[in-house]
Structure to design on (637 residues):
C-alpha cells in the first residue's frame, strides 16, 4: 500500500500508487465492451484525468466549484472525478434513479456548473429541467450520438460530448500542465471533496459536505480493520458511486491499495459478470445476499429426494463447523471430514456462481438479517458487515476478518469514538473506541452517536440543520438505535422508525420485519402499528413463489388492483406469518395484513435510492387500506 498520512488528499492517491505499488501500465479499471472485459491502465486513467482538468480550467472551473455526475458506474466516472478533484473542485453525484424535480433541486441547491450525463434516458430528463437551473453551464453526455436527443433542445446550456471534452483537454494539456500541478498541491485535507445528498426518507435531500480528510481517514482506518485487502485483489463494482458506501469501500480503497476495479453491466447481469470477472471482493447490500440465500436454498431443496437431503445435511454440517469456529474450538477429525465432503457436494457449486475466488463480501446500507449471515457463514463465505451513514464518510464500525459476531456490524474502527446515549435523559451509557474493545462487553440500548475525523463538515448551506445533528460537544447524532454486543456494535433500528403501540410498548420494526422476511413467500414487508392496539403490515409476496404455487401468468401481476384479495393467496401468506410469529413476543406479532400486488419501488416514490422505505409517504398513500386493517382482523398470530 502506498503511504497515506493525515495530509494526503484524494488526487494524490493514484499517483502514490503508481510511484510505489504499481507501474503505469498495470490494469486498474475494466468494463465490458461487446463480449469481453477491456482493461484501462493506471497511466491511462491519470492521463485522462489530466486532460479533463485542462478542459475544466479552460472553461473557468476553479477550486470549490461544484461539478455534477449523473451516470452509472464506469471508467468515465473515475476520469471525471479524478480530473475535478485535483483542481480542488467538488464532486456532486446524483442517483440516476431520481426524479426530474429531485435532480433539479440538487443542481440548484449545489450551484452546479457542469453535469456529466450517462445515457439517453438521463439526458432527456436533464434537458426537461436544464433551463430551470441557472448555475448550470455545460451538459456533457457520456455518449457521442446525443444529437438525436438534443436537436429539439433550444435552451441556453452548452452540450458537448465527453469524447470531445477529452480530446480538447488533451490538446490543452501543454498549456495547463503546470497550473494543474499547482492546483493539486493546493488542495487541503479540510477542503470539501464531495457533496453527497442524503436519500431523504423524512424530507428534502441535504448535501453532506465530505472533506478529503473525511474520506482518506475512513479508508485508512478501514484498511487497519481489514488488512487482508491487497494490490492483487479484484473488486466487482455495481452499487452506485453516487452513494458514499461504494465510493469509499470500493473506489477509494482501490485507489489506496492499487487493486483492480471491474464494473458490472447491471444488476440483472451481475451473476453473469461475477462468473466473468471472478472477483475477490465485492461491496453488497443485504437484499442481494437475501436473494442469493433464497435461490440457493430453493435450488438445493427443490423436488425433495436425495438431492434435498444432501443439501440440508451439508448446511447442518456447515452450521456446526461455523459455530465451533466462532468460539475458537477445533473441528476435530470427523467434522473436518464431513465439512470437506459438504464442500465438494454442495458448497463449491454455490461458490462457483460467485466466480469462485471471493475472499469476502462487505455488506452495508442496511442491517443484514441474522439468518442470511448464518447461511453464508455455513457455506464458508465471509460476509463482513459495516455500519455508517453518508454523514460519517461512511464507516463507523466493520467486522474484523478473523472475528465475527453474526447479527452485529463489527468493531469500532480506529480513530473515532462511538457512544450509546439514552434517548430520553441524554445520559451517555458508554463510550467505545478501537482500543477499548472487549469481546465480552455488553451495553444498554440507546442512540448511537459518534465523534472523530469521519464526521462531515456539515450540510451544504444549512447551518441550522447541521446544528440539529452535531451537538455543542461535537457528537454527531446518527438517529439509529443500538447497543454493544460482545464488544461489537449492534444496530436495533432507526429512532424515527420506532413504533409505540397504544399500550406504550416500543416495537423496533426492522427486527420484526426481518423475522417475517425469512419466508420465501414474502419479498417485502412494511410494518404498521404506531399508537395502535396491535401490529399490521403491508406485504409484497414473492412473484416467483406465487407463480409456482398458483400457476399464475404475467397478466395477474399487471392487473390494476393495488391489492390481492384472493382467499387462497391470503391463506398461503398467513401460513408463514403464523409459523414465524412464534419467534416473536405477542405484542410484536402481526394480527392482520394486506397483500400488495406490486413491489415498493424508487420509481413510485416509496423507496429511497438506498432502498429504505419512506414511512410517511407509504402511510399516507395507503391510509385507507391501513385503516381497513384495523376494522377486519385476520388474527394471523
Amino acid at each position: 500500500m502506498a503511504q497515506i498520512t493525515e495530509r494526503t488528499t484524494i488526487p494524490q492517491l493514484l499517483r502514490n500508487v503508481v510511484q510505489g505499488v504499481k507501474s503505469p501500465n498495470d490494469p486498474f479499471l475494466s468494463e465490458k465492451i461487446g463480449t469481453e472485459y477491456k482493461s484501462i491502465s493506471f497511466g491511462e486513467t491519470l492521463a485522462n484525468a489530466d486532460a479533463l482538468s485542462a478542459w475544466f480550467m479552460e472553461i473557468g472551473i476553479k477550486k470549490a466549484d461544484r461539478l455534477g455526475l449523473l451516470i452509472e458506474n464506469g471508467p468515465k466516472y473515475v476520469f471525471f472525478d479524478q480530473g475535478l478533484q485535483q483542481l480542488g473542485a467538488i464532486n456532486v453525484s446524483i442517483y440516476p434513479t431520481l426524479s426530474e424535480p429531485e435532480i433539479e433541486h440538487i443542481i440548484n441547491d449545489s450551484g452546479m456548473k457542469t453535469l456529466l450525463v450517462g445515457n439517453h434516458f438521463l439526458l432527456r430528463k436533464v434537458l426537461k429541467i436544464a433551463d430551470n437551473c441557472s448555475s448550470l453551464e455545460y451538459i456533457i453526455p457520456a455518449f457521442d450520438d446525443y444529437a438525436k436527443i438534443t436537436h429539439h433542445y433550444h435552451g441556453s446550456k452548452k452540450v458537448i460530448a465527453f469524447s470531445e471534452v477529452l480530446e480538447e483537454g488533451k490538446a490543452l494539456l501543454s498549456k495547463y500542465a503546470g497550473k494543474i500541478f499547482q492546483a493539486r498541491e493546493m488542495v487541503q485535507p479540510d477542503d470539501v471533496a464531495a457533496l453527497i445528498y442524503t436519500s431523504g426518507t423524512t424530507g428534502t435531500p441535504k448535501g453532506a459536505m465530505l472533506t478529503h480528510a473525511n474520506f482518506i481517514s475512513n479508508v485508512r482506518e478501514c484498511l487497519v480493520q481489514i488488512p487482508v485487502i491487497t494490490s492483487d485483489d479484484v473488486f466487482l463494482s455495481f452499487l452506485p458511486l453516487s452513494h458514499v458506501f461504494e465510493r469509499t469501500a470500493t473506489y477509494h480503497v482501490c485507489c489506496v491499495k492499487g487493486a483492480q476495479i471491474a464494473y458490472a453491466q447491471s444488476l440483472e447481469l451481475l451473476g453473469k459478470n461475477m462468473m466473468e470477472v471472478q472477483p475477490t471482493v465485492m461491496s453488497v447490500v443485504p437484499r442481494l445476499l437475501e436473494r442469493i440465500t433464497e435461490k440457493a436454498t430453493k435450488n438445493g431443496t427443490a423436488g425433495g429426494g436425495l438431492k434435498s437431503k444432501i443439501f440440508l445435511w451439508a448446511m447442518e454440517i456447515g452450521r456446526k463447523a461455523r459455530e465451533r469456529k466462532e468460539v475458537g474450538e477445533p473441528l476435530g477429525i470427523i467434522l473436518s471430514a464431513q465439512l470437506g465432503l459438504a464442500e465438494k457436494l454442495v458448497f463449491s457449486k454455490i461458490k462457483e456462481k460467485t466466480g469462485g475466488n471471493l475472499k469476502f463480501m462487505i455488506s452495508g446500507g442496511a442491517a443484514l438479517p441474522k439468518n442470511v449471515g448464518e447461511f453464508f457463514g455455513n457455506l464458508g463465505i465471509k460476509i463482513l458487515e459495516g455500519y455508517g451513514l453518508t454523514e460519517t464518510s461512511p464507516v463507523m464500525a466493520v467486522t474484523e476478518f478473523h472475528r465475527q459476531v453474526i447479527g452485529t456490524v463489527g468493531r469500532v474502527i480506529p480513530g473515532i469514538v462511538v457512544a450509546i446515549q439514552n434517548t430520553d435523559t441524554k445520559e451517555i451509557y458508554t463510550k467505545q473506541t478501537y482500543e477499548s474493545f472487549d469481546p465480552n462487553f455488553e451495553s444498554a440500548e440507546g442512540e448511537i452517536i459518534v465523534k472523530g475525523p469521519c464526521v462531515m463538515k456539515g450540510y451544504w448551506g444549512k447551518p441550522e440543520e447541521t446544528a440539529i445533528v452535531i451537538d455543542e460537544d461535537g457528537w454527531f447524532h446518527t438517529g439509529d438505535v443500538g447497543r454493544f454486543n460482545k464488544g461489537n456494535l449492534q444496530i436495533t433500528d432507526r429512532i424515527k422508525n420506532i413504533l409505540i403501540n397504544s399500550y406504550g410498548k416500543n416495537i423496533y420494526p426492522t427486527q420484526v420485519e426481518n423475522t417475517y422476511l425469512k419466508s420465501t413467500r414474502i419479498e417485502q414487508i412494511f410494518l404498521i402499528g404506531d399508537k395502535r392496539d396491535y401490529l399490521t403490515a403491508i406485504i409484497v409476496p414473492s412473484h416467483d413463489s406465487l407463480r409456482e404455487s398458483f400457476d399464475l401468468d404475467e397478466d395477474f401481476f399487471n392487473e390494476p388492483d393495488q391489492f390481492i384479495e384472493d382467499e387462497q393467496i391470503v391463506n398461503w401468506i398467513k401460513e408463514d406469518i403464523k409459523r414465524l410469529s412464534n419467534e416473536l413476543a405477542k405484542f410484536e406479532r402481526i394480527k392482520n395484513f394486506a397483500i400488495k400486488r406490486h413491489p415498493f419501488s424508487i420509481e413510485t416514490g416509496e423507496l429511497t435510492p438506498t432502498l429504505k422505505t419512506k414511512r410517511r409517504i407509504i402511510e399516507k398513500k395507503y391510509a385507507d387500506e391501513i385503516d381497513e386493517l384495523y376494522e377486519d382482523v385476520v388474527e394471523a398470530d
In short: The two ends are 55 Å apart (CA to CA). The chain has 21 helices and 28 strands. The mean pLDDT is 93. The CA atoms of residues 441 and 579 lie 34 Å apart.
